[in-house]
Write a structure and sequence with these properties.
The chain has 167 residues and is an all-alpha fold. The protein has a single domain, classed as Orthogonal Bundle (Arp2/3 complex 21 kDa subunit ARPC3). The protein is 66% helix and 0% strand. The protein contains six helices and no strands. The chain has helices at residues 3-20, 38-41, 49-67, 72-92, 109-131, 137-162.
């Protein structure tokens, strides 16, 4: 399937799942899964960076409209899209651009570190600006860690559900 069509389908499907299903999950009173971040994580490595930044902003903005969160998802997604090349460099090495990095392949420490770091950065920015107080720093860290773990588990399940079979 064409990469552009695949990205559009992924965008629509992840927004739909987040709005209909995952926005209604609230574990322990504050932990919410945010698997829509997979759109940013699974965007092609050699794809257009401007398209990634703009579409990341819009996926966050759409989630903000449905969850009434005043732009914090848009900001967190844009920050994640901006730091994504640095995360690739940290997780996969300096020559990540010349490799075919596929997150849906077999699980390795590089892929786990990439997904966990990306989710942590997204969630930290999200909760930091949601609470917007340094006096609540430990609540921010706690919410970030619990939501990151929950989102990581759901993201792994989604990745393995949509992974194409190798024959």
């Amino acid at each position: 399937m064409n990469n552009n069509i695949l990205n559009i389908v992924r965008f629509i499907l992840l927004v739909f799942l987040q709005v209909i299903l995952f926005n209604n999950i609230n574990m322990f009173g504050f932990a919410n899964p945010y698997p829509y971040v997979l759109f940013i994580l699974l965007f092609p490595v050699n794809g257009n960076k401007s398209v990634l930044l703009i579409s990341s902003f819009f996926i966050g903005l759409i989630i903000d409209m449905f969850s009434n969160s005043h732009g914090i998802h848009a900001m967190a997604c844009t920050v994640l899209a901006f730091v994504r090349p640095n995360l690739f460099r940290f997780s996969f090495g300096i020559s990540y651009e010349y490799q075919t990095v596929k997150i849906a392949d077999k699980i390795t420490s590089e892929r786990v570190s990439y997904v966990l770091l990306a989710l942590f950065i997204h969630h930290f920015v999200l909760f930091f600006f949601e609470y917007f107080s340094l006096t609540l720093f430990f609540e921010i860290i706690y919410s970030t860690l619990i939501s990151t773990i929950l989102s990581f588990i759901i993201c792994l399940l989604i990745i393995y559900l949509i992974k194409p079979n190798k024959r």
